[in-house]
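We emphasize that the prediction below concerns an isolated chain of 203 residues; any contacts that depend on oligomerization or on bound cofactors are therefore not represented. The input was used exactly as deposited, without trimming of termini.
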Amino acid sequence: NEILPIVELNHKSGELVLNPGRGQDIGRMFFREGRLIAAQTGMLEGEEAFYDMTEADEGTFAFHGKPIDVPEQITVEKRELLKKAGQLYFESETLFSRLMDQEVLPSIKKENIPQRVREKIGEEYLQKILSLINPRRTVRKIINESEMSRLRAKAVLAGLFSAGIIGIEDYEHQNLYMEYEPQIDLFEEESQAVFVEEDELFE
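Result of the prediction step, given as a token string:
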């Protein structure tokens, strides 16, 4: 949890390799003179790969100092990335406050999606998640097959549940699903989200 500020403060160039274990993809972050310029993990690159790596709660890492010659994928500052990761983390946690099991089968309940929901989620991410929803695909599979970070996929699903766009139709699993009674509106213009600290994201 200390490597990122060390790399930044010392203006180091090199590759940070994260091995989270448990069969998860190895992640790589690339720094040029202390600035994070690219990230890769599995099929993901750039910011989505970075967000995916913030979910790692165990494993090993190693920093290899060397000249970096990779295309620049990340242009925003690390602080802004961490702020966005914190927002996604906060939103994704609301998904599991109502789903006690990821093996439930969500279905689309509303075809007409409000513009504020589209703008909050982003059209690209919205369509990717909606295209995966079918009677045989569980929440777990949707998250793993979404072609985005797991953190974002969970946040998008949480938003769609929150807005009533998707729900659970299989009543055999109703004990695994709590009908959403919003305590937090994920689509409020002024979010009250509390961002997690940088150290917490990389513990």
